[in-house]
Fold:
Amino acid sequence: HADVGYYAWKCPKPLKNRDVITLRSWLPMGNDYIIMNYSVKHPKYPPKKDLVRAVSIQTGYLIQGNGANTCTLTYLAQVDPRGSLPKWVVNKSSQLLAPKAMKRMYKACLKYPGWKQRHNPLRKPWLYPEQSTLPSLSLSELSIQHADSLENIDESGLAESKDDRGEGSDDDSVN
Structure:
């Protein structure tokens, strides 16, 4: 069970926006799941000039079922955002991003059963790979994306301002 994903996100000003390409794999184990990803190079998606290509060294989730409606979620993120970021940016990101992501995921999980009932409830490609509609890709077309092979964008001169101390550009609401 694996797929390749492209993700891009807006960063709070004055930082440059980032993107990443990952190979994600998942393993169902009874009521539990392991979902892991790491950065890869994809020949059709080279780094873009207006984005900083981040690197997921190892990112993932362990989801442990604890009954019919509960689970324990463990999140691991070892990511190199690339660029020469000021220390205050790294510290602020460490404090805000993972908790914010968990809050958004929690809100999405609460709404998922109702959403899934309205959106092809029998389609579950994470359980039944033959249901996947993603184009197939030979793994030989991919290679691991190492951080040292990317251009280093210097953002170290960015000064912290009052506006920069607020929440990031992502919206906390889940539609």
The two ends are 28 Å apart (CA to CA).
